[in-house]
Amino acid sequence: MTDGPPAELHVDEALVARLVASQHPDLAGDVHLAASGWDNAMFRLGTRWAVRTPRRAVAIGLMRNEQRWLGELATRLPVPIPAPLRIGRPDPALGYEAPWSIVPWLDGRSALDVPAAERSDAAAGLAAFLAALAIPAPHDAPANRYRGVPLAARDAEVRARLASGALPDAQRLEQVWERAVAAPGWSGPPLWLHGDLHPANLLLRPTGELAAVVDFGDLTAGDPSTDLATAWLTFDARGRRSFRAEVERRRPTDAATWDRARGWALVIGSAVLGVADPESRFGRFGADVLSQVLVD
User: Fold this and answer.
1) Whole-model pTM?
2) How many CA atoms lie within 13 A of 293 on its CB side?
C-alpha cells in the first residue's frame, strides 16, 4: 500500500519541461517534482511558478473546474490560492492527454508536517477563509458526488468500512456516525466548498498562521459541513475550540451542522485509512482524524 492510488497518467519532470517549452516558452525554466498527491502532481517551475498536472483520469474534469473557477474565487479570498496563470492543453504528440495549469508557487509549510497540537494559530485564518468562500454558488458550479452531498449518500460505504474490522474503535465510531446521519440536513442554498480541506492542503507561515490554501480539485457547492470537517481533520481539541469559536463569531452555525461536519471527518479519515499505508504520512493522518472524532 502507498499514500495514494497508483498513477494512471505518466508525467515526470522531463515531460513537464517539454510541455512548458512547447506551449508557454516564455516561462520555461528548471522543473522539479514538488509533490505527488492522490489525483495530481505538482512540479516547481523556476522560482516563481508551479505546474499542476493530473496523474489520474478522474482528475481531468477536476482540473478543468479549477481552470474555470479559481481565478474568480481568488479575488475575494483572504489568503492566496493556486489560481491558474496559464492554461496547458493536452498534447498527445508529447504523450500527455490531459489539461494542466501553470500556477503561482505559494510559499509555506504543509500543515500536515506540523503536529496538530501546533496548528491552533491557523484557526482564525482558516475560519476567515471559509467565511469568505462559503457563499451561495451559481447554478453551474461544479457537481461532485462525493462532497457537499447529504451524508446519507455516503452511508453504505462508511458502514462497510466500520464493519470491515480495519478501523480502530469501530463501535464508538459507529455511534458518532449514527448521530451524524440522524442530524437534520442542510436546508439552505448550495454554498461554495473547497471540498478537501485537510492539513495537506493548508500552507502555514513560520508563525503558524494560515499562508495559503491549495488543491481545489474537489471544488463544488453544497452543505457547508463538508468543509467544517476541518475542525477534526486539522486541529486537536484546543485548536478545534478556537476554530469553532472563530467560525461562530463570523457566522452562527447550528449544532446539526457541526454534527454533520464531525460525520464528514469520519468519512474522510476512514477513506484515507482504506488506501494509505498505516505507517505513511497519510496513514497516520487518517488514524489521527478518527481519534479526534472520538475526543468530542
Assistant:
1) 0.95
2) 35
